[in-house]
Specification:
alpha+beta
Length: 382
């Protein structure tokens, strides 16, 4: 909330207290039996409303005590309940239903006990009881409405974030598809042309014949085409992550997801392909948890194992050295008896891991929730 919004809210509270105080004081002035003490009680009970945002229960207690003292001392009309009504509404609005009802009941008891005449007091008490009930109900309704607005805003932000991630993922997949098509079609054909031209040049020189200029031009052009095509494929296949898994965890926390990150082993720089795959796996797992797990807790674990660039022996924990193990677990609503149908995200994770020679398991956990386990060979670290 900005400072301007805080100032406006504070000003609105002061105006509310001033209006209620002015109205109560004006009504008290028409009663000939009103004393200076009664005016002080009305003013103090009304002034307490200015602090209802900061301390709603304290404001309700003060307004109830001062208002009850006023009605016991001066025997005013029903409108004397305005400060207490406002305090009851604001207390119910922030969820203190029991306290709000108790405050209204205390004021009603004091009002009835000092009312002139049984029938007249019962009629006024019934009217006030209806007012207090409305104050509690409207406070609860306002609370539910504010919660609905916050939930709607959070869902909109989450939908926007997932749309952006999905668009980026689709763009990356399309780039990779184009790269594969170019590699499978053009690279093979140009390689054959270059190879044939090279063989023809070699045979001509071996026989002592003059190499035709057109053949040399074909050999040079095919080599240049191969270099240009490789550069284009590198650009298309560039899918650099925009951060680290730790940054992904921070973003997920900022979005309201309860995430815990644990890093074990000898943390070190990773090969580019492994680093990119690890980022995308954690990103996809957190996205799925945010979308499908509900209000769940998520645990992300990165295990770098024991640093060893010469072999892939096994350490004392049973994990292979030279592997990065990624685990993302949540305690959401996934059911082992109803495994999800793999979508684009899970399929993409499997493809990334398989391309690196690793293994991936993504399935509901026996104890509930969903688990993603990936093991990526590191090879020679950089």
């Amino acid at each position: 909330m900005s400072g301007r919004q805080v100032d406006r809210g504070r000003l609105a509270d002061v105006v509310l207290a001033a209006v209620v105080g002015a109205l109560g004081t004006a009504l008290a002035a028409f009663d000939d039996d009103t004393t200076a003490l009664d005016h002080v009680l009305v003013v103090l009970a009304s002034a307490a409303l200015a602090f209802h945002r900061a301390a709603p229960r304290a404001v309700l207690a003060a307004a109830t005590v001062l208002g009850t003292a006023y009605v016991v001392h001066a025997h005013p009309g029903p409108l004397s309940a305005l400060p207490v009504l406002g305090a009851v509404h604001t207390a119910a609005r922030v969820g203190h239903r029991g306290v709000a009802a108790a405050g209204g009941a205390v004021f009603l008891a004091g009002y009835v006990a000092t009312g002139p005449g049984t029938q007249h007091a019962a009629e006024r008490a019934g009217l006030l009881a209806g007012w207090f009930l409305c104050a509690v109900v409207t406070g609860l309704a306002d609370r539910n409405w504010q919660a609905y607005l916050r939930q709607t805003e959070q869902r909109a932000l989450e939908a926007e974030r997932t749309r952006e991630e999905a668009a980026l993922r689709r763009a990356g997949e399309e780039r990779l598809r184009i790269a594969r098509e170019l590699h499978d079609s053009l690279t093979h054909s140009i390689s054959i042309v270059k190879l044939q031209a090279g063989v023809a040049v070699h045979l001509a020189r071996k026989r002592g014949d003059e190499v035709p200029p057109a053949l040399l031009a074909i050999q040079e052009a095919s080599g240049e085409a191969m270099r240009e095509l490789r550069s284009a494929l590198q650009v298309l296949r560039a899918d650099e992550p925009a951060g680290t898994p730790a940054l992904l965890v921070e973003r997920a926390r900022a979005a309201g997801l309860a995430v815990e990150l644990t890093v074990t082993g000898d943390e070190r720089p990773l090969p580019r392909a492994v680093d990119r795959a690890a980022y995308r796996i954690v990103q996809e797992a957190l996205t799925n948890a945010a979308r499908h797990a509900g209000p769940a807790k998520v645990r992300v674990r990165l295990d770098y194992g024991t640093r060893n660039t010469t072999d892939h022996t096994t350490d004392h924990t049973g994990d292979r050295m030279g592997e990065l193990t990624i685990g993302v677990d949540d305690d959401g609503a996934a059911d082992p008896d109803r495994p999800p149908v793999p979508g684009t995200g899970l399929t993409g994770m499997h493809e990334r891991v398989s391309a690196l020679g690793g293994t991936l398991r993504a399935a509901p956990r026996a104890e509930g929730g969903f688990s993603v386990r990936a093991r990526l060979p590191l090879g020679d670290t950089v």
